[in-house]
Write the structure tokens for this entry.
Amino acid sequence: MDELLAKATQGVDPDSPGAFFRIFLNLMTMIPWNELFWWNLAFVAVGALLGWWRGRLLAGIVWALVLGPIGWIIVLRAPRSARPPPLPR
């Protein structure tokens, strides 16, 4: 924890008015954004596949985008969408 705190406060004067913002930016640069993007894309792809299988493609995409793998459970627990019968000719 001390190492993380030292990295976050590196080059920051704690008494300066913008110290909070600078520490926040230092913490944001330590986050692996590239990996998070690809993991999120994989979660959405699986959510879309599960949604398509259950007849709820948009719901699968949205739930997976918002909640990740937890959204998959919501899509799988929801009832299948009922398709209306075909119209008579």
Remarks:
- DSSP finds five helices and no strands in the chain.
- Residues 1-31 form one domain.
- The two ends are 71 Å apart (CA to CA).
- The chain has a mean pLDDT of 90.
